Structure formats: structure tokens, C-alpha cells
TrEMBL record:
<keyword id="KW-0804">Transcription</keyword>
<dbReference type="GO" id="GO:0003677">
    <property type="term" value="F:DNA binding"/>
</dbReference>
<feature type="region of interest" description="Disordered">
    <location>
        <begin position="144"/>
        <end position="166"/>
    </location>
</feature>
<dbReference type="GO" id="GO:0003700">
    <property type="term" value="F:DNA-binding transcription factor activity"/>
</dbReference>
<dbReference type="InterPro" id="IPR050679">
    <property type="entry name" value="Bact_HTH_transcr_reg"/>
</dbReference>
<dbReference type="GO" id="GO:0045892">
    <property type="term" value="P:negative regulation of DNA-templated transcription"/>
</dbReference>
<dbReference type="InterPro" id="IPR036388">
    <property type="entry name" value="WH-like_DNA-bd_sf"/>
</dbReference>
<keyword id="KW-0238">DNA-binding</keyword>
<dbReference type="InterPro" id="IPR036390">
    <property type="entry name" value="WH_DNA-bd_sf"/>
</dbReference>
<feature type="domain" description="HTH gntR-type">
    <location>
        <begin position="87"/>
        <end position="154"/>
    </location>
</feature>
<feature type="domain" description="HTH gntR-type">
    <location>
        <begin position="7"/>
        <end position="75"/>
    </location>
</feature>
<protein>
    <submittedName>
        <fullName>GntR family transcriptional regulator</fullName>
    </submittedName>
</protein>
<dbReference type="Pfam" id="PF00392">
    <property type="entry name" value="GntR"/>
</dbReference>
<keyword id="KW-0805">Transcription regulation</keyword>
<dbReference type="InterPro" id="IPR000524">
    <property type="entry name" value="Tscrpt_reg_HTH_GntR"/>
</dbReference>
């Protein structure tokens, strides 16, 4: 998408999502793209993608279900979201961070900031700590007290092996 310079990008992306809702691409109760999906599709920053969601929520076009995602608000009062991913929020966040590590987006020794994850995903510190504990158990990150959590310099050959994932 080419952005016009005289209008905030989040407004322009919100226009696209608004059009998709209006034309039925995203039906009532259906999930809309996540912050991460908006970042990838439109090449925008996480903060910008969060503004898109915040703006559409303020208009009443979407609603957010903690741990499930954001959905098109129902026009008939029936706002039950379709269960797209029954995994808990921390497991979903761990999946995102894991994919960033394995793809090289987060290179070895990259800081995995708890504060940044809290802000990006809009979750509490305890949720983020579940994420880091799981990734640490998988050998994907190491934590140094007082310094933070970093991508392991030597990633395991089979991430997730032995972690109980199917």
C-alpha cells in the first residue's frame, strides 16, 4: 500500500479495514487482522497498528476479547466471536516471539524486553513472564538477573522438543 504523506498512516490502514468490514470481507463476529498481521500486511510499526485497532474500537466497528483477539462487532447484538485460536494469550504471544527468533528477526543475543512485549500485546507482566519462562525452557532465550532475557546464542536444533507441544 502506498501511503499519502499528509494523513496519518493509521487512518489510512483503518480506512482499508473499515472498507473490508463494510463489503463483508470481515463479517460480524469474524476476527480482524491482529496487530502483528497489520504490521506485516501494511509495513507499519506495532504502535501504528495498535492505533488502528484502538480507532476501530472507538468507532464500535470491532471489539477485543482478551486472549482471543479482535472481532467485527455484530450488527444484530450477537457479538460472540468465532473460536479461531483456543490457546491462551501467553501461548499465542510465545508463538509470535518463537517465530521471530527462529526466522532470525530476533538474532542471537537480541534483548527480549518484557516491557516491550507488554506494550506490543497489551498484556500484564505476569503474562509476559509466562512467555519468557516457556521460551527459556525451550532453550530459545536465556535470562541474566538484572540484565534481561536474550535470544540464546546457540539455538537448540529442534525448538519446542520436549516442551509438550504437539
Amino acid at each position: 500500500m502506498e501511503f499519502v504523506p499528509d494523513r496519518p498512516r493509521w487512518h489510512q490502514v483503518a480506512d482499508v479495514i473499515r472498507e473490508r468490514i463494510a463489503d463483508g470481507t470481515y463479517a460480524p463476529g469474524e476476527r480482524v487482522p491482529s496487530v502483528l498481521q497489520l504490521e506485516e500486511e501494511f509495513g507499519i510499526a506495532g504502535v501504528t497498528a495498535q492505533k488502528v485497532h484502538r480507532g476501530l474500537r472507538a468507532e464500535g466497528l470491532i471489539h477485543t476479547q482478551p486472549g482471543l483477539g479482535s472481532f467485527v462487532s455484530g450488527r444484530t447484538g450477537d457479538e460472540q466471536p468465532k473460536m479461531v485460536n483456543p490457546r491462551s494469550k501467553w501461548e499465542q504471544i510465545a508463538d509470535v516471539v518463537r517465530s521471530r527468533i527462529l526466522s532470525g528477526e530476533y538474532p542471537p543475543r537480541h534483548l527480549v524486553s518484557e516491557v516491550r512485549l507488554e506494550q506490543e500485546f497489551g498484556v500484564a507482566r505476569m503474562t509476559v513472564r509466562k512467555v519468557t519462562a516457556a521460551l527459556r525452557e525451550e532453550g530459545l532465550i536465556t535470562t541474566t538477573p538484572g540484565m534481561g532475557s536474550f535470544v540464546s546464542p546457540n539455538l537448540p536444533k529442534e525448538p519446542g522438543e520436549g516442551s509438550g507441544e504437539a
